[in-house]
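Annex B. Sample input.
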Amino acid sequence: MNAATLRALARAAAATTVLLTVAACTDTSPASPRATSSARQQTPTAQAHTTPSDRNTAMDIRVTLNGRPADATFNDSPAARDFAELLPLTLDLEDFHQTERVADLPRRLTTSGAPEPAAPKAGDLAYYAPWGNLALFYRDGPSASADLLILGHIDADTDRLAGADRITIETAP
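Annex B, continued. Sample output.
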């Protein structure tokens, strides 16, 4: 896919998220079967892909760690959408502070419209703005930082994340 198609997909995902949010908020009375039904349908998905720091997912991505696939998603932040424009991307990872695997990106990402800082969790894919690099956390990070933008999450066990020497990230078909 080219960059224009990825941008269009990201915009469509963002618009869908907004429409679903508006629809869910318009009628929340218990007498409304539609409100109750849609809340039940959305809750499991939201719980499966988000954390208390409100990392709502907007784009499925395909990730391989050392050649083995892993489930992953990007959130709907401007930085994640900007990162998606770089895909497909293969990076060599190095250990950093026995907490994360890091790699330099081909260019810096946007930091405008960044969400509230959140402490990274194991499996989080993040962008560290001061250095312009990608970070894959295999342990929970120490604290929230405005310089660290969470881009998404990879569902893999910590041993696999910690041993990742190479990551390939592509848009999901």
